[in-house]
Design a protein that fits this description.
Elements (H helix, E strand, L loop, with lengths): L4 E6 L7 E6 L9 E3 L7 E8 L6 E11 L3 E9 L5 E16 L4 E19 L2 E20 L4 E15 L4 E16 L2 E17 L4 E24 L9 E23 L2 E17 L3 E4 L14 H9 L18 H11 L5 H6 L21 H9 L19 H12 L25 H9 L19 H28 L2
Antiparallel strand pairs: 1-2, 3-4, 4-5, 5-6, 6-7, 7-8, 8-9, 9-10, 10-11, 11-12, 12-13, 13-14, 14-15, 14-16
Helix pairs in contact: 1-7, 2-4, 5-6
Organism: Thermohalobacter berrensis
Protein name: S-layer protein
Pfam families: SLH (PF00395)
């Protein structure tokens, strides 16, 4: 499975943001899947299906990966269930990476530089050996870095030519592949769609066999963080319930094939060997209990569970007695909540950031370096999530409107392009009240289910958002990152 480059912006203490390359999935370009135990081991369990013989053969074993800035190296050791088929493969590719920091994009090109592959099939006392004698390959991926998500798209072309028992025959496999993926704090999904055209020819003194077949392989890697509710059963306890944060990785391989039927050395012209299969790897979920808030003013409130989820994640301060669900949301509060919910900076970075105050510029006139929330505002500004108002001021204590909140979240996702060109009308009855600068964001938020409006059909864009509404809105945002994107990048593409 391809170790696709995703572009991450590191908000460092004293430096401007740097481009760091982190790959989502990393088992090569062969159409197989690996089990990622969420550790740093270079060797992973691996599965792959080959079709060279005219029959699908499932192989399992290991892939060892060596990844650095300039090369990708893979070493496979695989066998089928009864040990009659073995595969040994070593592949090396060069990496050429070009970045455009202004557009926050990265282009990577991978070319084959070395290869060695041999497949041995044992049938009684006879052995058939497929040796890779030529491998042409080219891959390119574009990574578009949005404030909290990396979206990427790649494709590749390849031709593998095998010699059968040295000079007795030949198999040529033409490969085309496409990659669709994203990576962000709450989840990552990469889906590959691969097509293989197989041409086989084998000559002996007595006969000659030629056939054509093809296979389609869909592979999807997924990592998801989810919050699960738990109830505390004892009556005499300081808390009655809470949330658990779970993280799990899953890889699925779905394949179909159309191959010849061979009887007594002859290819049947009228019938074909067709079928499909599914293989998968799942990791054991990691689990972490979330903090229990102490609020005394949210019990029975319609947003109680939204607030508890954010408090458990320490997005909002759960150590105080009162949350104030009916109070207006301040700009500084929403900025901090976005940064914390998306893990844009680490808490220890905030604590260490006071070491050299002179090294950090003021981003807004009303946010001096000594401001207690300076690092959050800096992160939100550097990511392009929130801008100033008026004469380069942030107005941290200013109230946040619904239109502003929706615009911030859609800008965070980088999905403004989903809206049509202005002028247009949204479906909301108070469309005439939507500020022009918020029109596209509100349209997109409605389309993807983040802002549905009231049952009567109003969005009330210019009303101030309460803290309860903000909690519910941020939880919908998190759920979208956990679930909705995965459906678009896996279920919709693979027709699951």
């Amino acid at each position: 499975m391809h170790k696709v480059i995703t572009l991450l912006i590191a908000i460092t203490l004293l430096l401007q943001p740097l481009f760091i390359y982190a790959q989502i999935n990393n088992a090569g370009f062969e159409g197989g899947i690996h089990k990622n135990e969420m550790d740093n081991k270079d060797t992973k369990k691996y599965k792959e299906v080959i079709f060279l013989t005219g029959e699908p053969i499932l192989l399992e074993g290991t892939v060892e990966m060596d990844i650095d800035d300039d090369t990708l190296e893979y070493e496979y050791e695989l066998t089928n269930s009864d040990g009659t088929v073995t595969l040994e493969r070593e592949i090396e590719l060069e990496r050429i990476i070009e970045e455009d920091s202004k557009q926050r994009q990265v282009v990577e090109v991978n070319n084959i530089t070395d290869y060695d592959e041999e497949i041995t099939i044992t049938d009684g006392d006879e052995e058939t050996i497929y040796t890779l004698v030529d491998y042409q390959f080219h891959n390119s991926t574009i990574d578009d870095k949005q404030p909290v998500i990396d979206f990427y798209k790649g494709d590749w072309l390849g031709t593998k030519t095998y010699s059968i028992n040295e000079n007795e025959g030949q198999v040529t496999v033409e490969i085309t592949g496409n990659i669709y993926g994203y990576g962000q704090y709450w989840g990552a999904t990469e889906t590959q769609k691969i097509h293989k055209d197989i041409n086989y020819s084998f000559d002996t003194d007595d006969s000659s066999i030629e056939w054509y077949g093809y296979a389609d392989i869909d592979v999807s890697f997924n990592r998801t963080k989810e919050m699960e509710y738990f109830k505390n059963l004892p009556y005499q306890t300081s808390f009655r319930d809470g949330y658990t944060l779970t993280e799990q990785e899953e890889t699925i391989m779905k394949y179909s094939y159309n191959l010849p039927v061979i009887n007594n050395g002859e290819v049947e012209e009228q019938i074909r060997n067709q079928g499909e299969g599914v293989e998968r790897f799942e990791t054991l979920p990691t689990r972490k209990k979330l903090y229990i808030p102490r609020y005394q003013d949210i019990k029975g409130h319609w947003a109680e569970w939204d607030i508890k989820r954010l408090a458990g994640l320490k997005v909002v301060d759960g150590s105080v007695k009162f949350y104030g669900p009916g109070l207006h949301t301040k700009r500084i509060d929403f900025a901090k909540w976005i940064v914390k919910a998306m893990n844009l900076i680490e808490e220890e970075q905030v604590e260490r950031s006071y070491v050299k105050p002179e090294a950090k510029p003021e981003f807004f006139k009303d946010i001096p370096r000594e401001h207690p929330d300076y690092d959050y505002i800096r992160a939100i500004k550097e990511k392009g999530i929130m801008n100033g108002v008026g004469d380069n001021k942030f107005l941290p204590e200013g109230n946040l409107t619904r239109a502003q909140a929706i615009t911030i979240v859609i800008r965070t996702l980088g999905l403004e392009r989903l809206a049509p060109n202005l002028p247009f009308n949204t479906r909301f009855k108070d469309d005439q009240d939507i500020p022009l600068w918020a029109k596209k964001a509100i349209y997109v938020a409605d389309q993807i289910g983040l802002a549905e409006g009231t049952p009567e059909g109003y969005i009330y864009p210019n009303e101030y958002m309460t803290k309860a509404e903000a909690a519910a809105f941020l939880n919908r945002f998190i759920t979208y990152l956990q679930e909705n994107l995965k459906k678009d990048y896996r279920e919709n593409i693979l027709n699951f």
